[in-house]
Amino acid sequence: MEPLNLDDFITHIDRPDSGVRRDAEDWRAGRSPRAGTLGKLDELGQWLAAAQGGLPVKPIGQPKVVLFAGDHGVASLSVSANESGTAVRFAKAALAGESAVAILARRYGAALRVVDMSLDCDPAELPEEVTKYRVRRGSGRIDVEDAMTREEAEQAFRTGMAIADEEADAGTDLLVLGDLSVGGTTAAGAIVAALCGTDASVVTGRGGSGIDDLAWMRKCAAIRDALRRARPVLGDQLELLQTVGGPDLAAMTGFLLQAAVRKTPVIIDGVVSSAAALVGQRAAFRAPDWWVAGQSTGEPAQAKALDRIAIEPLLDHGVTAGEGVGALMALPLLQAAAELWSQLPERAVHDAQSASVDDIT
């Protein structure tokens, strides 16, 4: 197998079709209601047209939620309200259809997939299709050691790429990306702080678990120590993921980049997927044109990452649950935009019909 070279993504990723984007403006100008009156739905409709490469937009028929799962060794420092090594509970709840993301996925007609990258549990606790991609059991404590080896980082990254390919080959037309992790926001904070050149305190939030002040201080200290280890490897995105990321973050980065290669749009979720997106943007500057952010979580690291990528969250409802919930909440907005941009009537026809109704009345 050839060594993994992230620079290759620069040549493999094109932006969504700019010609179609221009045509979309003309197409929309001839439709009713008037262009611009649908606000964000018009912006998303134009984006979907360019991503799909044609007009009218095709309705979203096969959305898929993909959740990468892993336990982070840094959680042993009590940086999360959840106990270290317990992310398997989230995976089991999602698979049983009992978690918030599973309930919403059913409501919005999206299939759900859980991928175990580094859960700290016996693989026998989960279905084989979930654990078959596992790279290792848990990740290293990033404040004092690498999250994983170089070989494991490459394996995880390639796994993310392979899953993006599988979904594209299966006809998935919109991906919703999230994570199932304990300690993941700490690793994500270290990555964002390193890539944005900020201090640990600037990116340290309360996480989806809602930690208290003492836990926040422990988390800030862990990110500070991880940041010292991250700064020397900033020139190599894969080494950065190896050092202070984890198999789940590496897989998510590969997933995002390969989805862009395959011209499949992605809704990203909270701080963990946003950190992966920031790494992806460093590898291939055109890749973020294929992504939208579902919702602002209020996490400072997410805000920093999205600002650097130049992506504005679609929603801000104060949801901090993680697990893809925020991204999934934005799915109906994308579905609505696709439906409208697939069926909006021509203005002349609409005006003539309105005039006929006026004559009758």
What does this structure look like?
The protein is α/β, with parallel strands linked by helices and 361 residues long. The chain has two domains: 8-58 and 340-360, 5,6-Dimethylbenzimidazole Phosphoribosyltransferase, Chain: A, domain 1 (Orthogonal Bundle); 63-329, Rossmann fold (3-Layer(aba) Sandwich), CATH 3.40.50.10210. Helices cover 51% and strands 9% of the residues. It has 17 helices and five strands. The protein has a five-stranded parallel beta sheet with strand order 2-1-3-4-5, with helices on both faces. Helix 13 links the parallel strand 4 (266-268) and strand 5 (291-293). The longest helix has 20 residues, at 150-169. The protein is globular, with a radius of gyration of 21 Å. The mean pLDDT is 94.
Assigned CATH architecture of the largest domain: 3-Layer(aba) Sandwich
Tally of strands:
5
Order of helices and strands: HHHEHHEHHEHHHHHEHEHHHH
Span between termini: 73 Å
* Fraction of helical residues: 40-55%
Shape call = globular
Largest sheet: 5 strands, parallel
Strand percent estimate = 5-15%
For CATH, the homologous superfamily of the largest domain is named as Nicotinate-nucleotide-dimethylbenzimidazole phosphoribosyltransferase (CobT), large domain
Q: Outline the low-pLDDT stretches.
A: none
How many domain units?
A: 2
Query: Which structural category fits the helices and strands?
Result: alpha/beta
Question: Per CATH, what is the topology of the largest domain?
Answer: Rossmann fold
CATH class of the largest domain: Alpha Beta
Radius of gyration: 21 Å
